[in-house]
Amino acid sequence: MKKLKINKEKILGLFKKRLKLHLFLRTALVLGVIAILLFSLYTLGNAYQKKEEKTETEFNYSYTKEGAFNQVIYLENNTIYDDADELPPGGKAFRNIIREIESFFNFTYSSSSESDISLSYKLEAVLQTDLWTKIYTVKSIEQVQDTGRRLEFSVPFTLDYSTYEGIYEAINSETGVTAANPTLIYQCKIFGNAKIKGDTIQLDYTPSISLPLNGKTIEITKGIANSQAFSDIDRSQVQNMDVVNEKNYWTNITIAIFILLIIIILITRPDTEAYTEFDLEVRKIKKKYGEWIVEVNKMPKRPIGAEIITLRTMDDIIKTSEELGKPIIHYRSESDNTHIFYVLDDSVHYQYLYSENEKLKKSVRCPQCQTRIETEGLPGEIIRVQCPKCGKKGTVEI
Fold it and tell me: How would you write the pLDDT of the chain (398 residues) with one tens digit per residue?
């Protein structure tokens, strides 16, 4: 098995080639991505606090059962109701003018789905006081069977008010004790079931009405538990895809932002150089005239006999470049931080020099004894020099 060789120089070279960004800009960019990453992590944490399961309800069926007592009160000849044969709706039932009370018990079962219904019912009269209770059968047990979504039946009977008042008086006489709060209660006992969608539901039910005895008027109260409704709902735990998708979304976003942060850190490096006003001006020049400028690392050689013309402004060198149709060559002298912009023609070299100092320094060697001679002057100026060692004289062009 071959060993993996790691070329450290190549790796270091990659790091050196990283994009240089201004320290402030790079710091702001990294902090901005970190802020977005923290927000993404916060949102992701909230998403993971949510439950991935939710309760889902499914409606199966519903049904209602309703029992109601209704009465028609027939009257004797009377003055109060102008000899009306029936008690008008909302009228007061005065005992002395009541001829007969015809009553009905009506039962209704209805459901949202087909049902197999099997019911039995029994109508009873209950004579009740604070001391004793007596129960009498008004209608014997009857059976009702049907299939469908609705079942109805009606039980007619006569509300025999006077008979039960007589029984109440007889018991009081027999016992020698007058029982208080005599009340006549009619109730219909319903028992059975209905089969609906495979379920068996019980329909046991006892609606009733109450009538106080020994009064000059009759007050009929409504039945107890007149109507009852039921529904069957299945509840199940299912996966909440909204929460699952939210978690996946923010997980992917967080990973992507984290990778972006790593990439920014790896492919960029801070530019920590301190720029002077002079450096910033040079940057402005290069940015403004970047289309015409070509960067070089070495100063171009001047052909023998070629004339050098030093221009006063950068605009002058731009115009010269446009007229000659030749690029501007930019060279920076590291020794004195001088920037020289050239336009090279066959016999003439046009140049614009931009330096921090008015005078430029230049170092030459004596052609006879190789002694280094330091001199300075204005750009394009020809300076006469003499070797301090051998005394040889000559000229230096700045």
Answer: 455 455 555 544 555 567 877 777 888 888 999 999 999 999 988 988 888 777 766 778 888 889 888 888 899 998 988 888 888 766 678 888 888 888 889 999 999 889 999 999 999 999 999 999 999 999 998 899 999 999 999 999 988 888 998 999 999 999 999 999 999 999 999 999 999 888 888 889 898 888 888 778 877 665 545 677 777 665 666 777 888 888 899 999 999 999 998 998 888 887 755 556 667 777 777 777 777 788 888 777 776 767 788 887 778 888 888 888 888 888 887 666 678 888 888 788 888 877 766 556 667 788 888 887 777 665 555 677 788 888 777 776 66
Region for residue 50 given its phi and psi (left: phi exceeds 0; alpha: psi -120 to 50; beta: otherwise): beta
Q: Tell whether 35 and 79 lie within a shared domain.
A: no
Q: Tell me, yes or no, whether 2 lies in a domain.
A: no
- DSSP single-letter state for residue 205: B
Residue found by looking up tokens 């501007």 in the block: 328
Residue showing tokens 């039960």: 164
Examine the domain organization and report whether 254 and 337 are in the same domain. Answer: no
In a domain, 334, yes or no: yes
Which stretches of the chain are DSSP H helices?
Answer: 8-16, 23-49, 161-175, 241-267, 277-288, 314-324
Domain hosting 360: range is 281-397
Per DSSP bridges, beta strands 268-271 and 19-22 are: parallel
Residue whose tokens read 């209770």: 133
Residues 78 and 213 in one domain: yes
**Co-location of 28 and 94 in the same domain:** no
Residue that is last in its domain, among 181, 216, 236: 236
Q: Which residue has the tokens 């007592």?
A: 69
Domain presence at residue 16 = no
Does any domain span residue 12?
Answer: no
